[in-house]
Amino acid sequence: MRLFHFLKFLTINNFSRYCLKIVKVHIIWITIICIIYFNWRFKKLDFMAIPYPPAVIKFNTSAKYLSSNLASSSQLGNNIFEIASLYGLSKHLNRTPLFFIENGYHKKMLDNLRKTMPRLMEKFRILNGSVPRSISETKFQRACCLHKSPWSLEKNRDEYLHLSGKYYQSWKYFPNMRNELIEFLNPTSIQIFGNLPISDDQNHVTCVHSRRGDFVEYLFYASDPKFMKNAVTFLNENEKVGSRNRKIVLFGDDLNFLETYFSDAVLSTDVGKNAEYYISQNPPIDDFLYSKNNCDVVLITETPKFQLPAQHSAGGLGIFRKETKFTIWILNTLGIIFLNLEVLLQVTSTHHTGRL
Q1: Could you give the CA distance from residue 318 to residue 310 in angstroms, rounded to a whole number?
Q2: How far apart are CA 339 and CA 330, in angstroms?
Q3: What is this structure's pTM?
Q4: Which of 105, 195, 301, 331 could disulfide-pair with 284, CB 3.0 to 4.6 Å?
Q5: Distance CA 80, CA 72 (A)
Q6: How far is CA 60 from CA 57, 124, 292, in A?
Q7: Is residue 347 within 8 Å of 178, Cβ to Cβ?
């Protein structure tokens, strides 16, 4: 009798173990299938773009506020343009500018702007969270690169005025603000730019900007290698530098392109190497500050996606001279410098365009 119960116990125990193994195997396969499915289904999910909870705001205050949608995932140049334009609009409308940290991209944009133009961001009230649904959106600036008169906004009496536009790529949103915007730049005077030359009594620095990347992909007027080489030759033959050493710094989003057509250039990371041509591999924020202090002449070799107050010639060559150390370039996150802020600020007396 006892033997019978013992054999029965072993049979039940083995069966239980077998069932448990089957369940474990099924759980493992179901888990694997779920992982594969969710990776396939949500592979395009951008976690940086997931919106934060709505910001907590107060109504019925004595202030008036201005905010806007932002192309926060775009490049640094776009970000600076947006913020400068919103600041200019807020001054025109006598409103306090707001910056909603709506997602991870907005947080990154805010961090970069605080490094680049900290005093400008001090003018904004920062709110941690998305735009609440209680704030209605006002249609404005439907095209990225055209100026729209803010007269329609002057009639708006909403406490919180939130605009639907993005980019705001027109200098007309911040006219006559040259000195003020310059003061907003990072005041740090000592910067480390790798091997890039410093403009001084010994060196004359020509900064050459190229852009390929998305311009090639989307069939914009990307920098042409033949034109770029001819343009640099043109500058070397026509720019008088006196007894100073001629130094040419190349900026762009395609390192292979620059190294192919300027094979004698050294990288900014090649510390200790001396040359005539240099290719910057610094972060865009560092390039921004380097350009402010060191570019004696700026050459832009592609057609921007938006209009400039001082139009480029049909040949595509824009030469911008400076008499002071305030030539400022706006860069994107790939390190591309795509326009000269002094031009946007209508400091045209010392600028001219040339054509090959």
Answers
A1: 9
A2: 6
A3: 0.66
A4: 331
A5: 10
A6: 10, 20, 43
A7: yes
Residue 298 in contact with residue 340, Cβ under 8 Å?
yes
341 and 310 Cβ atoms separated by less than 8 Å: no
Reading the chain (356 residues) residue by residue, the pLDDT tens digits are 554 454 454 455 565 666 667 767 778 878 777 766 666 665 567 889 999 999 999 999 989 999 999 999 988 878 988 999 999 999 999 999 999 999 999 999 999 999 888 899 999 999 999 999 999 999 998 877 788 899 989 989 999 999 999 989 888 898 888 778 877 877 655 567 888 999 999 999 998 888 887 666 666 677 778 888 888 888 888 778 889 999 999 998 888 889 999 989 999 988 878 889 999 998 877 887 788 788 888 887 765 443 333 222 223 334 444 333 333 333 222 233 333 333 333 322 233 333 33
Size (the chain), residues: 356
Alpha helices in 239-344 (DSSP H): 255-261, 284-294, 341-344
Phi then psi for 98, rounded to 5 degrees? Answer: -115, 145
CA distance 138 to 22: 60
* C-alpha dihedral (356, 325, 118, 279), degrees to nearest 10: 50
Q: How far is CA 146 from the centre of its chain?
A: 19
Alpha-carbon span 56 to 328, nearest angstrom: 37
Please give the structure tokens belonging to residue 272. 């200790």
Q: Determine which helix (DSSP H) or strand (DSSP E) holds 152, and give its type and residue range.
A: helix 151-154
User: Whose CA is closest to 289, among 248, 251, 331?
Assistant: 331
* φ/ψ (deg, to 5) at 155: -85, -15
59 in helix, strand or coil?
Answer: coil
